[in-house]
Structures are given as structure tokens and as C-alpha cells.
Hints:
Helix content of chain A: over 70%
Largest sheet of chain B: 6 strands, mixed
Order of helices and strands of chain A: HHHHHHHHEEHHHH
CATH class of the largest domain in chain B: Alpha Beta
Distance between the termini of chain B: 41 Å
Helix content of chain B: 25-40%
Radius of gyration of chain A: 21 Å
Strand order of the largest sheet of chain A: 1-2
Oligomer: heterodimer
Amino acid sequence: MIRLIYYELIKIFLKKRTYLGFGIVLLIVPLVEVAMKLEGGRFLTMAMRGLSKDFLFFGNIFNGWFVAHQIMNSLWLHIPLLISFVAGDQLAGEATAGTYRLILIRPVSRTRIFISKYITTLIYTVIFVFFLAALSIGLALALLGRGDLIVLTRNILILPESEVAWRFLIAYLLATWTMITIASISFFFSSFVENAIGPIVATMGLLIVCTVITVMPVEMFEIPKKFLFTRYLDMWQKIFMDPIPWNEVKIGILYMGSWTLAAVLGAWSVFVKKDILS
Amino acid sequence: MNENILQTRQLGKRYGKRWAVRNLNLEVQCGDVFGFLGPNGAGKSTTIRMILSLIKPTTGETELFGYSLKSRRSDALRRVGGIVEKPDFYLYLSAYKNLEIIGALSGGAERKRILEVLDLVGLTSRATDRVKTYSHGMKQRLGIAQALLSNPELVILDEPTNGLDPQGMKEVRDLIVHLSSVQKKTIILSSHLLYEIELVANRMVIINNGELIVQGNVSKLLDEGEKYVVVQGHPRKKVESVLRLQKNIIEKYTVKEGMFEVRMDFTDIPELNKALVLAGVHVQALIPRRSLEDLFLSMTEHSNEARA
């Protein structure tokens, strides 16, 4: 199995499209952070205009942690697209290229091939999310220094610097967990079709529809929205609350895990029975 | 040498209401070069896909080396290599890397073996080039290399000469002969080019519209086919009068598309030639026809008529 995973990794990481997501992140994150360094102070001043009349702030509040947190907020809807570029290509890409005819006539079970491809997808997802984390946090801290983290939601919460690093770590672990769900859904769509665009469009379509249903305050959506994965897509944000609502986080983990499991089992049942006609 | 290494029983595949392959019973014995003939769309590739477990049959089963493909898939495929239709690879990787990946799925291929098969198909010098830079012929040869990578006892080649120029076709045919006679491999060769099968196969099957039409020994089937000599010469009147007179060696003759088709024993061709020349005929050609192609055409025609 390790050998199969190794060669799947070679297939992924020698493909140009794999680096598309990394390239976009590598372009956007420094661009945003440099822009924030040059002009971002005004953004914080505006956001805290009301408060500055009543409170005095000491120290570097417009710091790297703050910018990294803002990036995590703003980029998070785009990351699924970049993840599905690769996850959606995992099975469909072999069909498009006609290489199923090479690999599925070997004396190795389809289940083993499926598992190796799925594990490779997970590895890519983890690497991608942590690349984003390392770049956005590392560069932000280098450019803007350290300090307490100001979390701007409906309220303003100030988290002491001593708590920020581990909160980011857990937040990114949860973000990875949710991105694994997205990757698995994309992988599921990938098992059906014979071109890699289909799974990307299907994943993003599902994401948009579910997000709309989740955020719309319409009564008829109240029951279905309880079951949608988008309900917990941003569960990592709860880590920046005080106190952290661990119960909700646990439920979110289980929810996303269930979606992941359903997507993987669905993909597996399609893949092992699939007639290779391409 | 008569061990059955491939056997299909009542193998069939249905798409909707249409049967792509129906009740196919094949037997391939150890050492065979087994020709798998049929016109385009006859069901050859569907059958090969079922044999190699790319598609699941609707009916019947396949046994390879005594193992059922349904219950012992890995054991059944362990000693088999193949190409299915056109050769596709990871175009962004080198031929060597492609073979390394494919080898990993058969338990791992050593560098020495990869280089050996690349050498066998004449691709050593291009081993590290990306496959996307390869011509169709080179990809076809790489397809054969990957089929041979795990040193299989049974090699299934689905139309391996498709799209090749005459020289490329000859090279592939020579390679098949080499694999059979020197490396003692059993080969299933599918093709819609009948002369190709005639050149290399010892046993064959003809299928049409997904159904088996005939199966057997190539030379025996050839003997069962009609034998005739195509006579071309002028003046035509003189040719015809000679043919009319040579009743001792000619069974009958017909005129087809301006040429004479003469039913006769091939051993009497020199005598006919002599008679034609003595009668003042300018003989352009005396072509003995005992081709599998005729047999194939007549059989597929009969099959189509029966269906109609």
C-alpha cells in the first residue's frame, strides 16, 4: 500500500495543475499582507472607531496575528475550489487520460487503488492547508510583528498573545478537517464522471447551494440546513471565541466526519463497480 | 501444451437492450497465438475488457489460469499483461516513470526489467523523455512494453497495430512472433485486419455483432474456406476460351468485377499458365486466393444476413 501511495503522490506532484492552488495562494497571500502592511492600519482604525473613544489601546494591535486571522476569514470560501482542482481530478483524471486501462488490469484490487488515491488526496489537502497556514501566519508575523489578537465579529474580543498560537493551530486543524470533507465530496463526484471539470463544478455548485440554504433565514430550510455540511464549514472560527464552545466544535467534527465518510463510501461503491469504457 | 489458460463461458455484456457480446465461449491454450477477429464494433474490445476485468459481464464468467476472475481476480490477472485499445499513458511523465508506476501495481518492477522491455520495443534512447513527446507508433510500442513488464505468460494485445505505418505494423508482427516463438508466451491478438491474424496466429475466433461465428485452428479453417485463382490477362476472349477448355483442371469459373475467379487446385496453376501462354494470352496475374479474409467476409456476411 505504501508503494501505491508513493506512486500516487508522484502522479499528483509531477502534475502542473497540482501547483495551481499553491501558486494562487503564493500570489494572493503576500499581495494581501503587503497591502495590509501598507494600508491596513486604516481598516483597523475604522473597525474600532467607536471603541477608541472609550478605551485606550496599548501595544501592537495591528499585528501579524490579526492579519493572518483576517486572511483565514476572507480566503476560506476560495480554498475549496483550489482543493477540488486536485481532489476532483484524482479519479476522473485517470478516466480522461484513459489510464484506467493501464492500472485496473493489474493484479491489485480496485479497493487498494481507491484507498491509495484517497490517502493521496488527504495528504495533498493537509499539505495545502498547512502551506496556507505557514505562509499566511509566517509572512504576517514577519511583516507586522506579534501582539494580542483582536477578533472582530459582532463584538470585539481581544485574545492575549500567549493563547493565540495554539488557537491558530487548532483552528487550522479544524479547517483541515473541513477541507477533507470538501476534498471527499469532490472525490465522490470524481468517481462518476470522465472529465475533471465536472467534479470541480459539482463540488462548488453543491457548496454554493448548501451555503445559501444554510445562511438564509427561511423557515422551510430550518430542518434541511441542520444536515448540511456547510453548517459547520467555518467551525474553526469557534476556536477564536472565549470561552471556546467545545461541544459545538465536537458536533461539527462529527458532522463533517459523517459527510466525509458518506462521500468516501459512496465514491468507493461507484469505483469498484464502475465499467471502464474510456 | 494443451492446458487451457483462458476460458470464457457464456460471457455476455448488455448495454440497455443491446447485447455488445453474447454467450461467448472462448478457449485459449498455452502457447497459442490466438487471433481474435471481427469487424469494427463486433465486440472484441468489450470482450477483452471483460477478460481484463475492466468491465463486469452481464452473464457468464472468465477463468484465467484456472482462477475465476470473479472470485480470484488478483490470482487470475497475476500472469496476464495487456493493451486495451489505444495506448494511453501519463503524458507528463517519462516512459521509464510510467513503467515504474505500472510495475508497482504488479508487485514492483526492477530497473533492469524496465530497461529490458524498453530495449525490446526499441525505446531505450527515449526512456527519460516525457510520453507526450512520443509519436503514436512509439506510444503503441510503449503499450507493448507495459504489457510485457511483469513478464506475463499471457499477453493480450487489442489491435496493437492500429494507426501504425506499414513498417511499424511489420515490427509489431515480428515482435509478436518473437514473443511467441522465443519467449514462449501465449498471445491473444485482436484485430480487424485479417491478414495480420493469418500471418501470426495458429488459432482464431471470429466474432460479429458480439457473437462467436467460428473458432478453431487457423490452417484448418483456411482449408475449409473456398480456394480459387484470380486470373488477369488479355485478350479476355482468349482467356475465357482457355478456361472453358481446361475442364480437367478447372472445376468452374466465374467473372467478377472484370476478373476471372477460377475454382481449381493450386497445384495446377503452372499448367493453367502454360495453357494461357500457348493460347497467346498476355498473362498479367494468376493470384491464388485462400485467404482468411474471404472466409471472414463470407462468415460475417452470413451472420448479418441471418440477423436481417
